[in-house]
């Protein structure tokens, strides 16, 4: 079963949207595997956004993601990487459709509320940057998608 790393960014925490954002993934039927409230360090932020190192917005991105606590999570489900990015919506909030998290709640592009891994390789790398193996909880979720 595929896993992804999701993170409510500091703007989502400040706006009190952790619960409503998590509900989107619960409603879809995905399985929560790990979650914690953390202050991201600058080193951890640079590792997380390593693919953007050298781009003009990199320093602002690191400042933003370390500006306050985040809620980091691991979720599991079939095709969850693709499907969770559909639930999240486009990076540019002007292109994020209503019904998506960004489309419904975000109004300023860099403050787009939530991060979601974009590939299995990114998911594995990002997950390791935030969680130890023993923080991932194994359990049966008997009701998969009927909500
Ligand atoms: P994220 O990684 O944060 O989940 O967002 P994403 O996949 O939708 O977008 P990505 O291309 O990975 O960009 C990461 C974050 O950098 C900011 N960004 N600014 N000024 C720009 O052109 C620009 N491009 C990206 C956004 O805050 C984006 O979420
Ligand atoms: Mg990204």
TrEMBL record:
GO terms for molecular function: nucleoside diphosphate kinase activity. It is found in: Cytoplasm. ATP binds at residues 9, 57, 85, 91, 102, 112. Gene3D superfamilies: Nucleoside diphosphate kinase-like domain. Its cofactor is Mg(2+). Its EC number is 2.7.4.6. Keywords: ATP-binding, Cytoplasm, Kinase, Magnesium, Metal-binding, Nucleotide metabolism, Nucleotide-binding, Phosphoprotein, Transferase. Pfam families: NDK (PF00334). NCBIfam families: PRK00668.1. Major role in the synthesis of nucleoside triphosphates other than ATP. The ATP gamma phosphate is transferred to the NDP beta phosphate via a ping-pong mechanism, using a phosphorylated active-site intermediate. Belongs to the NDK family. This is Nucleoside diphosphate kinase.
